[in-house]
Amino acid sequence: MPDISLQNLSKTFGSGHAVQDVSLTIKDGSFTCILGPSGCGKTTLLRMIAGLEGASSGEISIGGQLIDAPANGTFVAPDQRGVGLVFQSYALWPHMTVAQNVEFGLSLQRMSAEARRERVAVMLGTLRIADLADRYPSQLSGGQQQRVALARSMALAPKVLLLDEPLSNLDAALRLAMRAELTRLHREFGTTIVFVTHDQWEAMTLATDIVVLSGGMVQQIGPAIDVYDAPRTRFVAEFIGNPPINIFAAGSAAAAALIPQHMGPPAAITVGLRPEAVQISVAASTGALEATVTALIPTGGSWIVEMSLQDGGTSVLHAAPARPDFTLSQRVFITPNPAGLHFFGPDGRAISVSPRQKETS
Amino acid sequence: MTLPRGLARNPVLGLGLVLLIVFLWLIALPIGMILQDAVTAQPGDGARTGVADGALTGYYLTRAFASRMSGIIFFAPFWNAMLVAICASTLALMIGSLLAWLLVRSDIPLRGWLAGAMLIPYMLPVWTFALAWVTLFKNATLGGQPGWVQAFGAQPPDWLAYGAVPTIVVLTLHYIPFAILIIGGALQRLDGQLEEAAQMLGARRVTILRRITLPALRPAVLSAGLLMFADAIGEFSVPYILGLPVQFETLAVSLFRAISTQQNGMAAVFAGAVLLIGVVTLGIDAWMLREARRFTTIGGKGAVNRTAPLRAARWPIFAAVIGVFIISVIVPLGVLSLSTLMHIPGRFNVANFTLDYWIGTDLPTVAFQNGILLTPEFWNAAWNSLRIAGMAALAAGVLGLLVGYVVARSPWRWLAGALRGITFFPYLVPGIAFAAAILVLFAAPRGPIPALYGTPWILLLALIADQMPFASRVGISAMAQLGPDIEDAARMMGAGLLRRLRSIVLPILNGALATAILLSFISGIKGVSLFILLAVPSTDVLTTFSLRLVDYGYAQAANAVVLVIAMLALLGSMAIRRVAGANFAQGLER
Asked: From the list B1, B485, B493, which residue is nearest A104 (CB)?
């Protein structure tokens, strides 16, 4: 089984760590996303799997075969790994037509001209770009270019397909189309797909599994929805979610009000509350946080209500599915839906005593 | 990363090391050797230096700087070179700035056409103007056929015919386009909104010019001035043609004379002096550019450039600009062309006109009794020019691209820095000093390399090294635009270094490569100071052949050869304009 396994993988450039002691397994046939802010080491990780960068220490193996292990000098060349890579820039060769771009890798494999032509036709058909065969990359739209880049990588029938920010260069409509396309290719070919992105929407909508990376270190691994529902660190909670999670600083009155009695002294606990778990009422109730509506922001299909807490002026966001029934400067009262409450210790790690987490764990 | 693992996995490093060794041998070694010659007793100088051949001696330095002869030997040529360089670059800067502003920011008629036409003088070999000047103003001081002014009955004084004045005028005419290019380019990049912002605050036009525009252009103006100065210090051909009749010598000419009289030690001192001035000047330039970068903001795309109306002065100014064009292009080329068609210079009657100097036979001269097009030496020189300049340009272009490749892709930053530095170094060294250095290296057999003096190889190698600054810059900037992804995509499929260079890099960068090759080719065709020391009659190229004709007094034949060179250079430059388009201005800087 071509599981991809990374063991204590590190990469240093000069004195800085790009990737630090990463261990994880990417399951055969999965559609895994490596998610993180820019500079978190995700592209370096992808390039190490591809073989474009060598690891500084640790091991990478695919399907049980060791492909990079600096400790014993193992390094398998990129083309011997059964891995395809689609670049963020697509990296199409501008002086070759679409068909020539797809054919280049095949000719390096010393495939006969006949077989090459056949394979190119099949790939262009699969990616639905057969009519573009004789065009040059500069004559193609972004979406078409990406299909060519995909066809070029997939022509060599890789066991693993690596994608660098696959949707980030596309406009909104194309993103949806390409998303469907990638899902279809994943289903049809059963290829293991690993992609990196900084875009949580891209991650949530495409991936079966998400690896959250920050500062070169793995923050959390798991199915997409688990990462959202049960963030293991404050970083993950803040990085994933749009609009972003509301944070109440440790020691603030609001945080104290939101922390359940049984959790002990609240002074060191930071509280996070998902915007969709913010419940707003015009009537006061015990334990509710008093706030003033400061902005009503339409985002197309839904609305964001921005409020400012009476106590200390902390800004709180609420995501509403329909036009909210408030006016600016109106006084409101906020209560949390416990499912969207998260608690973090001083080290940034989640304290798993929220009612929901108790249920799931 | 351990070394063997790095080298094994990254052939770029191997390529880079090979290139570094080649350039150390071709550039650093000869320059080091000539500097060493300045403090080493040369063969046959034992009686003067008082030490054995090859021993350390301060004789040459003392003779040049601190002897009774220093004034004549070193300081007179030094001050002459300074005078010429300072005057020519200052004048070119003043006229060039004005023209640049007119061409970029005013509503002068035929602006587009003028912008191209005003650059023509820079495409011509600089001594075209010198020969035209001699043809016009030659007086009785020099024997042989009369100048045109003389033929009309006037006797031009020596100061007008030879020496500092004509040298300065000729170099000024040659440098004006260079100043236009650099300052005009800066003016074009200067965002008009900077000026409009001042206008919004109530600044008057004069205030804006003085407080905003000029300070913003200062780095470009100073840089242009320094580059022209450095070039003028090492200029050989113009002072050689115009200065010798009145013993007006500059350092470059002294260097040439020292070499041709076998004073190798003194030649090394002159070469070192010229080299030092070049290094200092361009060092100042590099330092100032770095300083300037601190407050430079590149204007946004589509920077607004309004043109200033010249109003009533529009046509008079246009006439003046056309005047400059006539003086710097039409007159020199016209005079040279006509001179090759006349038996006796300056006599405009029908019987005096002839095609003999081009295609005639049995001319009443001692040698060269046939027209130039029927002379085997001419065709030999032309063939040498074409093959030497052609092969050198090809080699320099490819090497430049490889240097660019290593600079862009080497994981070892010191290797990238070393290659960039060493390939740029010949830029600091005037052609004639570099030629002297090459001569030192290749005059005798060294190791496996036989003595190359007297063969075309020495010209070829010198030209390649001399073209490297430009060729490597083209390669580096072209490679900088070629992101690594496009190659990594091929690497993923198993394409090795050679395959990637052949199938990916070269086809994509062929435009840049063509530009580099063509520009090097033109510069090789019209270059003279690099070749004058290295060519012997059998390896003459067109430029050295024409200077030999000048020396022997065959004015018509010499002018005809120069015209051929000028036409080749002009056609080549136009071809580059076709190929390179916008890169043209940048390309002309060398």
From this structure: B493
- pLDDT tens readout for residues B142-173: 777 888 888 888 888 989 999 999 999 999 99
Helix B314-325 with B76-105: angle, nearest 10 deg = 140
Q: B508 and A95 in contact by Cβ < 8 A?
A: yes
CATH of domain A4-234: 3.40.50.300
Q: Give A-chain residues touching B486 at CB under 8 angstroms.
A: 91-94
**Positive or negative CA dihedral for B499, B501, B505, B508?**
negative
The dihedral over CA atoms of A155, A160, A162, A166, expressed in degrees to the nearest 10, equals 70
B204 Cβ contact partners less than 8 Å away, ≥ 6 residues apart: none
- B63-295 folds as MetI-like fold (1.10.3720)
Determine which of A191-200, B232-241, B544-553, B578-587 has the lowest per-residue pLDDT on average. B578-587
Contacts of B508 in chain A (CB under 8 A): 93-95
Q: Give the span between the Cα atoms of A270 and B338, in whole angstroms.
A: 92
DSSP codes, A295-315:
EEEE-SSSEEEEEEETTT--E
Per the structure block, which two tokens stand in for A265? 């002294």
CB A258 within 8 A of CB A290: no
B364 versus A208: the higher-pLDDT residue is A208
Distance from the B23 Cα atom to the nearest Cα atom in chain A, whole angstroms: 28
Across chain B, mean pLDDT equals: 86
Nearest to B486 among A84, A91, A108 (CB): A91
* Contact (CB<8Å) B488/A52: yes
Q: How far is CA B388 from CA B381, B464, B510, B525, B567, in A?
A: 10, 10, 22, 9, 18
The interface predicted TM-score of the complex, written ipTM, equals: 0.80
* CA distances, B426 to each of A146, B23, B27, B420 (Å): 45, 11, 7, 11
CB < 8 Å to B502, chain A: none
Is residue B7 within 8 angstroms of chain A, CB to CB? Answer: no
Position B215 scores a pLDDT of 83
CB contacts of B9 in chain A (<8 Å) are: 54, 75
Neighbour order of strands in the sheet with A65-69: A16-26, A4-13, A57-62, A65-69, A74-75
The structure tokens listed for B406 are: 């290593």
Structure tokens at A191: 């290829």
Cα A192 to Cα A208: distance, rounded to the nearest angstrom? 11
Fold of A243-360: OB fold (Dihydrolipoamide Acetyltransferase, E2P) (2.40.50)
Model confidence pLDDT, tens digit, residues B347-371 = 788 888 888 888 887 777 777 778 8
Say how far apart CA A152 and CA A133 lie, in whole Å. 12
Asked if A87's CB is within 8 angstroms of B488's CB, the reply is yes
Task: Tell me, yes or no, if A153 comes closer than 8 A to chain B by beta carbon.
Answer: yes
CA–centroid distance for B532 within its chain: 14
Where exactly does CATH 3.40.50.300 map onto chain A? 4-234
- Strand partners for A5: A25, A61
Cβ-defined contact of A78 to B503 (cutoff 8 Å): no
What's the N-to-C CA distance of chain B in angstroms?
39
- DSSP one-letter code for A350: B
What confidence tens digit (pLDDT) does each residue in A266-279 have? 778 899 999 999 99
- CB of A136 less than 8 A from some CB of B: no
Nearest CA in chain B to A75: B9
Instruction: Sort out which chain B residues have CB atoms less than 8 A from A79's CB and list them.
Output: 491-494
CB contact under 8 A, A156 and B493: yes
Taking the C-alpha atoms of residue A309 and residue A301, their distance in angstroms, rounded to an integer, is 26
Query: Could you tell me where in chain A the CATH 2.40.50.140 domains are found?
Result: 243-360
